[in-house]
Hints:
Elements: E1 7-13, H1 17-28, E2 35-41, H2 48-55, E3 61-64, H3 70-80, E4 85-88, E5 94-95, H4 99-107, E6 115-123, E7 126-128, E8 147-150, H5 151-156, H6 168-179, E9 183-194, H7 198-202, H8 204-217, H9 222-235, H10 237-259
Parallel strand pairs: 1-2, 1-4, 2-3, 6-9
Antiparallel strand pairs: 4-8, 5-9, 6-7, 6-8
Helix pairs in contact: 1-2, 8-9
Amino acid sequence: MSKSLKISIITVCYNSAEYFEKAIESVLLQDYDNFEYIVIDGGSTDGTQDIIRKYEDRLAYWSSEPEKGLYDAIHKGLEKASGEIIGMINTNDYYSPGVFKMVANAYKCQSFNHTVVWGDVMYEDRRIIGWNARNTSLGTFAPHPSMFCPKSVYTRTNNYSMCYKVLSDYEFMYRAIDYHNINYVYMPELFAFLRSRELTFKNILPSLKEELSIQLRYGQPKIIAYSIFLFKIIKNSPKILKNMFCKITVSAQASNCFDV
């Protein structure tokens, strides 16, 4: 391709001031000549909007208003995106230098409108391999920031489902690869650095239930799907019990307030 592909990066945020600036700079300081950055804020009140305004002259678009949820906000970002390739970075994560060039180079030799590119991510000092073909049979996919996807693929596969509160990105990957037979390219390069997944941590059990539902929906044999589900329940049981205890404690404290 004689002209470099345009890459659109989308960040959805809400009260994310603590780490957001590092995420923004990891996008804006990329050594690539054709990208845009879109930020969709859900009406933050913690200083997030001040950070956005600091960089607004370098943003293609940003808005701040209440959303119907995470994936409603992502859909808004997708509608505004004008690039051929879409990447998404969370406010508490950040890209590696040079990742946009790596992704653009990967698409030079691929069927552009029918290919998703994955790379690796670092998560709490552990490198997560962005793609393992054997894992697709188990419904295992890498975290969202490891993926770059043509906008045409989002359009063809109807974007993210609004039926899931936590794992619509997982459902999209599963649907794109296993149902729509979208091709993939794996690059063994470090694409991004991830911090703790706060949303998923607080919703471990609902996340696992959604994962099970998605696997069954797209034809995973029940024996495999339920075995994976039970294994992950056992593996995450300390976190699940901790979350349950925290909720009970908060509920008891609220009850005591009303009893006074």
